[in-house]
Amino acid sequence: MNDASADLTDPALLPAHVLAREIAARRISPVDVVDALLARIERFEPKLRSFVAVYGADARLAAEGADKAIRSGHAVGPLHGVPVALKDLVELEGRVTTGGSANWRERRSTVTATIARRMIAQGMIVLGKTHTVEFAFGGWGTNQHMGTPWNPWDPAHARTPGGSSNGSGVAVAARLAPWAIGTDTGGSVRLPASFCGLTGLKATIGRISVHGVLPLSTSLDTPGPMARDVMDVALLYNVLQGPDPLDPNTRGILPVDPMPTLSRGVRGLRLARMPQSERAACSPEMLAAYDRSLETLSRLGAEIVEIALPFAFSDFLNAQAILEAEAYFNDGALAEDAGTLLDDAVRARVLGGGRISAQDYLATKRRQLACKRQMAMAMADIDALLTPSTATAAIRLDEVDQSVMPSRFTRFGNFLEMCALSLPNGFTSGGLPLSLQICCQGYEEATALRIGYALQQATDYHLKVPPVVA
After folding, report:
1. Does the annotation count 87 as an active-site position?
2. Which of the four pLDDT bands, split at 50, 70 and 90, describes residue 6?
3. How far lies 75's CA from each of 34, 103, 123, 249, in Å?
4. Which entry of 101, 168, 188, 194 is annotated as an active-site residue?
C-alpha cells in the first residue's frame, strides 16, 4: 500500500510496517530511524508542541542496542528497532507521567504499564511522551496549562487537534513518530484520528490491558494504536492485545490475530449506513466523503444496507453518569481544591461527577446493559455500522465551545462496549482531513480492520502529508 512511496533517504517518512521490514532486512539502521525522527522533532516541535518529553539520549542508546542485536542475528521480533510515542497517561517506571495536569509535572511513575512492557519486549523504542487533555477529559484537544498541540493541517490557524490523545495525533500526522499510543473513553483515539488525518482503533474493553495507564473512567477507558494506515494499526494492536493478570477486565479474553483476514476484502459483508436522521448533524463535505466511502465499499463487493436503531447517537452525549462519576472518584480531590491549577473546563466536568448519586450511576449501568442488548439485535445480521468519525473537520480553536463535545458519533461505541476504527476518507476544499468510522460489535476488531484495509487499498487519502511538515 505505502511501499511504492517509500523513500529510504528519509526513514522518518516511512510507515511503521515499511520501517519494520527495512530494519529487519538491514537496509535501514534503527539508529538512522531514531536520528531522523529526532531531527524532525527538533525542527517542527517548537510550532507543533506534540511532546511533553522527548527521550532523545535514551532512544539513541536503545537504537544502538537494537542495531547490534539485529546485525548479530538476535532480533527479538519483527518490530525490533521501530520507535513509538506514548500518550502521557502511560506509566514508565522512574519517568514523569503528568496525565496532562500541571499539578503532576513532577509525578514520577512507580510502575510500567503492561502495554509499554509488551512493546519494549518486542524491541520497540520509546521516543517520548505526548501531550493529552488534562486527565484525558475532553474531546477538542485543548489544554489550558500544559499547552495545546498545533494541528499540522493548517499552517496559518490554530485548529482542534482532537482529544484527548492530542499529542499522539499531531506527532504521528507530522511524521515525528511512525505510530503512537492513545486512549479512548468517549472518542479520544478516534477524534484526533479524524481531525489529524490518521487511522485509529478503539478496542473493546478487555482487549488491551489498562494496567499502568492513568484512569479517567475505569469502566470505559481503553488504550489503542494510532498510525498512518490500517496495516500499522493492525500490527501494533497485535502487540498490545491479550490477557493481563494485572487487569481483571482482560481475564478470559484471548487474542485474535487480525492479520490472516486483513486482506480478505469486503465482498459478502453487510455494512449499514447510518440512519437518515443522523445526516443533519454533519457538514456537507463530511457527508460527501461519507457517501463516497459507501460507494467505494459497495463497488468492492460489500452490501450496503439500512439499519433501524432504537436510539439516536446524540442520546449518548448525555449518558455520562458512568464517565463523570468515575472521573470524580479518580480526580475529584484535585478538582475540589481551589488552589490547584486545573483547566477550567476539565475542573467543571470532574466536579459534575460529584453531583451524581449512586442511584443515577447504577441506573445508567442498567440502561447500558439494555442498550447493548438492543444494539446486538439491531446488528444481528450486519457486520459493521458506518458513520463519519466527527460531524465536521477540525475547527479553529477560537471557535471551540467547551460545553459541546465533538463526540456525537464516537461516544455510543464506548457506552455500548463496541470496537471502532477511524480512518481518513477525504479532504475539505481547504485541505483539512475528513474521516470515516467503522463500528463493529465487541471483540470484532479484525472485521473493522479488514473493512478499513480494503478501503485504504482503493484510496490514497492516508498517504497525504500535512502542509506544516511537508
Report:
1. yes
2. very low
3. 17, 40, 8, 32
4. 188
The DSSP result for 123-141, as a single string, is: T-EEEEEE--SGGG--SS-
Question: Taken in order 295, 296, 299, 300, is the CA torsion positive or negative?
Answer: negative
What 8-state DSSP symbol labels residue 436?
E
Catalytic residue among 164, 165, 293, 407: 164
The active-site residue out of 29, 87, 194, 422 is 87
pLDDT at residue 286 tops 90: yes
Cell triple for residue 463? 498517504
- Whether 435 sits among the annotated catalytic residues: the reply is no
User: Buried (b) or exposed (e) across 353-367, using 16+ Cβ within 10 A?
Assistant: beebeeeebeebeee
The DSSP result for 95-116, as a single string, is: SB--TT-GGGTT-B-SS--HHH
Question: pTM for the complete prediction?
Answer: 0.97
| pLDDT tens, residue by residue, 395-425 | 999 999 999 999 999 999 999 999 999 999 9
What Å distances lie between residue 199 and 16, 173, 254, CA to CA?
Answer: 13, 10, 24
- The C-alpha cell that represents 303 in the structure block: 452490501
| Closest to 223 (Cα-Cα) out of 245, 243, 207 | 207
Per-residue pLDDT of 169-202, as tens digits, reads 999 999 999 999 999 999 999 999 999 999 999 9
- Burial label, 66 (beta-carbon count in 10 A; 0-12, 13-18, 19+): buried
From CA 361, how far away is CA 380, in angstroms rounded? 29
**389 catalytic, yes or no?**
no
